[in-house]
Amino acid sequence: MELVVDVKLHSYGDLVVLQDIDLHLRPGEIVSVIGPSGCGKSTLLGIMGGILKATEGRVLMEGEPAADCLNPLTYIFQDFALLPWRTVAQNVALPLEHHKLPPGERERRVKDALQRTKLDDFANALPKQLSGGMRQRVGIARALVVRPAVLLMDEPLSALDAQTRDLLMEDFLDLWLRERVAGVYVTHNFGEALRLADRIMVLSRRPGRIKEMVAVPIPQRERSRKSAQLELTELGNRLWSLIRDEASSAEREVVDA
Amino acid sequence: MLEDTMAAPAARLPREPAGRREVAFRGGGFLPEPKRYHSWVAFAGVLALWQVAVSLRWIDPVFLPSPAAICEALWGLAQSGDLWKHVSVSLVRIGSGWVIGSALGLVIGIGMGLSSVTRAVGMPMISAIFPIPKIALLPLLILWLGIGEAPKITTIASGVFFPTVIATFSGVDSVPRNLIRMAQSFNMPTSGIIWKIILPSALPGILAGFRISMAIALLLVVSAEMIGAQFGIGAFLLTAGNLMQTDDLMAGVVMLSILGLALGAILTMIEKALLSWR
């Protein structure tokens, strides 16, 4: 399944947040969205997933998702959005509870999602008993349980400390290379974008427009190799040069507000 | 003298080089520590002092009977069956009023939390009526509903309704929006969002409201029974007061205290069972 995004305009009253965003997300492709604070990255993700309605424009799904897909466009949230009164397994099972599934299918899916995110031993734990990294794993398991066609990720690692972020990013990559689910990954972190994305959409300061679409020509599997580091560093510098001035202006704007 | 007191630690600890000194500890304190027996000891102390004061006639027992006399009166009431007769009548009134008031409060509170129209209509009305002491409505309710159980139960229900509706509305209103968005992102139906996300999330606030409404129900049952009832703890207190039977009167007050503690303990048990995840 492919996702075609064509947002002409999105505004809150007189405040224009996004303008002229078009994106064609191909199956298995990961596009990362970066840009200065307040440029509308999360808003764009909300529009892509149908949580927000674009003022002008639309988002289209092209083709059919796999037969076992229960929620083609699935979010992974920055703050995990777990229900604190439910155990890990119950949180993961939540998206299945309003679907009629064959007997045993729910349990099978939950078990499988927990295994794939290395949470099997924590099925009966409550979210408060888990570290931030483990909580985000629950968020990922909950997303995987519906077998999504596109994962929409809103800064999924930003609430975690640097070490946990690195560890989870490795797992993310492993998972990605196995599952090959398409994804849109919103982040502030160039390193995450460069490790994960096939293309990086650089947004301008508000109103967010596509400033440049930067391709990352190295396969994800090879990005951790030494030989790739120079090219990735150059790409990182280019990304930074694209948003540096605007990021600085955006920061002043936030402070002034 | 000062040199003497400084000499002892200096002998045990390695001498610091000149110019260095240890950073003084400034933390500690301001932390609650569990004191398991203090409350019992203080309670027993107050009772003992009270008993001594009445026994030595520092206090006239007609105005304040001794704890022993109150226990004796309480035992007598229990033996005669009067205790259960009055308590059971009050409990039925509290139970009926509380269930009706809480059920209505929950429904309206959830409605106000979920619907902007209900909130816009309900909030000003609730703000206007909430401050009225509900016991002031009892004479009017007697006019409307006649003498009997109905006006008393309605008074209690109206007193319970307002704190419940406000607690429920606040609880529903403060449900983290990210949880609702999460459920929507999985296409969860509205009924599922209400049952699986909003109500469990609002439950701590609702139970806190129940605690307040339970205390109000107890207050109102006594007031209502003092105005127009033959049986019930309020009626018993009024009769004992009129007859200057202060030991019976204080026994009634102790019954109320025990009742309040028992109802509070039941709520604590419910909270522990339902909010064990916190």
Sum this structure up briefly.
The complex is a heterodimer of chains A (257) and B (278). Chain A is of the alpha/beta class and 257 residues long.
Provide an overview of this structure.
The complex is a heterodimer of chains A (257) and B (278). Chain A is of the alpha/beta class and 257 residues long. Helix content of chain A is 37%, strand content 23%. In chain A, α3 packs across α4. Chain A starts with a strand and ends with a helix. Chain B is an all-alpha fold and 278 residues long. Helices cover 76% and strands 0% of the residues of chain B. Chain B contains 11 helices and no strands. Chain B has helices spanning 2-12, 38-55, 67-80, 82-114, 116-129, 138-145, 149-173, 177-185, 190-228, 233-242, 246-274. The longest helix of chain B is centred in the C-terminal third of the chain and has 39 residues, at 190-228. Chain B is flat, with a radius of gyration of 28 Å. Residues 1-7 of chain B have low confidence and may be disordered. The chains are: A alpha/beta (257), B mainly alpha (278). The A-B interface holds A 49, 51, 71, 73-75, 77, 79, 81, 83-86, 94-95, 97-98, 126, 128, 146 and B 176, 178-179, 181-189, 192, 196-197, 200-201, 275, 277-278.
Strand and helix map with partners:
The complex is a heterodimer of chains A (257) and B (278).
Chain A (H helix, E strand, L loop, with lengths): L1 E11 L2 E11 L4 E5 L6 H8 L7 E7 L10 E4 L11 H6 L11 H12 L15 H13 L5 E5 L7 H18 L2 E5 L3 H7 L2 E5 L6 E6 L10 H31 L1
Chain B lengths: L1 H11 L25 H18 L11 H14 L1 H33 L1 H14 L8 H8 L3 H25 L3 H9 L4 H39 L4 H10 L3 H29 L4
Helix pairs in contact in B: 3-11, 4-5, 4-7, 4-9, 4-10, 6-7, 7-9, 8-9, 9-10, 9-11, 10-11
